[in-house]
TrEMBL record:
Name of this chain's protein: histidine kinase
UniProt cross-references to CDD domains, sorted A to Z: HATPase, HisKA
HAMP domain mapped to chain residues: 199-252
PROSITE patterns assigned to the protein according to its UniProt record, in alphabetical order: HAMP (PS50885), HIS_KIN (PS50109)
Keywords: ATP-binding, Cell inner membrane, Cell membrane, Kinase, Membrane, Nucleotide-binding, Phosphoprotein, Transferase, Transmembrane, Transmembrane helix, Two-component regulatory system
Catalysed reactions listed for this entry: ATP + protein L-histidine = ADP + protein N-phospho-L-histidine
Protein EC: 2.7.13.3
InterPro entries named among the record's database cross-references: 2C_sensor_his_kinase, HAMP_dom, HATPase_C_sf, HATPase_dom, His_kinase_dom, HisK_dim/P_dom, HisK_dim/P_sf, Sig_transdc_His_kin-like_C
Amino acid sequence: MHRFLPRSLLGQMLLAVALALLAAQTLSAVLIYRADHQRREAALISSLAFQLVSDPRFEFREGRNGRGGHPGRRKIRMERTLESPLQNGELHDPEREAALKDVLVAQDIAIDKLVVFARKVTDDDYVMSGRAGPVAGPEGRWSLDDDALIAGLKRAGENEWLVARVPRPEHNTRALGGLILQTLVLYIALVGGLAFLLRRITRPLAALTERMSRFAGRAEGLAPLEPSGPEDTRALIMAHNEMEARIAALLDEKDVMLGAIGHDLKTPLAALRVRIESVDDEAERAKMAATIEDITHSLDDILSLARVGHAKDPLERTDLAALVSSVVEEYEDLGEPVELGDTIRIALPLRATWLRRALRNLIDNALRYGGAAEVSLAREEGYAAICVSDNGPGIPEGEIAAMFEPFARGEASRNRSTGGAGLGLTLARAIAEQHGGSLSLTNRVEDGRIVGLAAELRLPQKG
């Protein structure tokens, strides 16, 4: 059901107001219908009671007779019968009988029997014969499309039934039509006005959201966002501007600090590399050089991981297939068993240097644990997917997520020849996320057994 709900604040607020207004107007329609029904019922019962209580010989004014404009007069047209007016197959109405009885008792009428029921006008011989008044026509009291509400009263001590009839017209639909028109006007006025007000709120929020997304990519040279909208929204934007300025200052300080740390550490490492040349034992000298090289590479990885989240080099439109092919060629030139699989031409805005670093890390892992690597490039559901697969032992399913943590490795040692410091996957994932993408690891399974690992780096196709 959530798929059909609007996702924006504006859409959800307008939907909530529209549903609330619909519920209120529906309740009003029900109340109006019930009030109209009760009014009609009271009028029908009163009309029947008036006829049954009045002397049938009493004359009353009904309207103009159409000649000379003088009022016409006629007797109440009532039926007297020795038998109950309720015929076989007709059902009496207990509720109306009780209501009519209350009125008659209040008029001191002694009731022996009382029946109230409805009958089609066309099925009532008394009405159709014209004895109950004109049928149809412009002055007709009775319409052939209506029902007749009939009440039969037999007073105590009398043998005859006194039968009264009133037409029962259909419900008045004009009130409902007016309510529908009122609802439409309310929708236009209320929802339209609310949409205007909400736009003043959501437009600055949308700008703030876009700004935060851009800031997450460490966009340089951005001027502070101009506060707009209601006072609360303005205060939120100003608070964000202050927070953004503070974060930018902290990141700049960290860049300076990391640069200083890198320089201060690499300088003595370079001096040590020179000094070990004086060591006579060649085997010992090689171990010391390897240790220094290991520290240098680890330091490079740590500094790269710290800087990747806010790289300052701009995005450049790059042929991804050519980039992948060139990295594979580097390994082929070194005699490494790296093979280029299927590729497809895809051009994306990238930071090529960083992406090359991520791809090399994935290939190094494949070579280290699988002995060989195959690299392919495909387009999948709006993403460019670079897949690096190997024929190694894979990773237990429960440990895959942990492989992306810094210094986590597939085997326990820290020797670079068997796994390094464990920052390769962490750095590769950070580079993928820097481009708005993701990195995932999946075991390759054939015939129910793991035959290798596939690392898939997915980049969104923005253009």
